[in-house]
């Protein structure tokens, strides 16, 4: 049981780190053009230098929603990690980690909403590029989506023995 708890804890920390990286770094979409490689994220558009990401009026609300949901997912993931540690030492044997699992599933839902909005609105849209593809931050966000769901379910069914 100790190995299972340690494994879940390590995957949870990895998920938090990957959420930080995917939200902060600006490589959600990568495009190539005559000027070189350009990448855009949630905050900046980078070619040789980085500048504020400019979006059209209709997509501005979508970008703000993606930013908000990714930040919320980080917050909920960190809260779930703290709650796991607190419940690990305060729960009696045989109790379940319901609160931790519920918070982690809220994190999972925030990631789902944020990445889905980004996929629907911004896929393939890197300014001044001819071809574009998803960057590592986009892929990390989907990996975090999977990990947070698995961790949330494991917390709900896990018993402290």
UniProtKB/TrEMBL annotation:
PROSITE patterns: PMP22_1, PMP22_2. The chain crosses the membrane at residues 7-29, 68-90, 97-118, 138-158. InterPro entries: PMP-22/EMP/MP20-like, PMP22/EMP/MP20/Claudin, PMP22_EMP_MP20. It is a multi-pass membrane protein. GO terms for cellular component: plasma membrane. It is found in: Membrane. Keywords: Glycoprotein, Membrane, Transmembrane, Transmembrane helix. This is Epithelial membrane protein 1. The gene is Emp1.
């Amino acid at each position: 049981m100790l190995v299972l708890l340690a494994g879940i804890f390590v995957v949870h920390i990895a998920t938090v780190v990957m959420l930080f990286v995917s939200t902060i770094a600006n490589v959600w979409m990568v495009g190539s053009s005559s000027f070189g490689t350009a990448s855009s994220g949630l905050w900046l558009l980078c070619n040789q230098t980085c500048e504020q990401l400019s979006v059209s009026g209709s997509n501005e609300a979508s970008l703000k929603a993606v930013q908000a949901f990714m930040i919320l997912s980080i917050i909920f993931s960190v809260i779930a990690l703290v709650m796991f540690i607190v419940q690990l030492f305060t729960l009696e044997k045989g109790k379940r980690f319901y609160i931790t699992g519920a918070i982690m599933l809220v994190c999972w839902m925030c990631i789902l909403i944020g990445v889905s909005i980004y996929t629907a609105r911004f896929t393939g849209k890197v300014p001044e590029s001819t071809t574009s593809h998803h960057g590592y931050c986009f892929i990390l966000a989907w990996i975090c989506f999977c990990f947070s769901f698995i961790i949330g379910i494991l917390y709900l069914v896990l018993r402290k023995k």
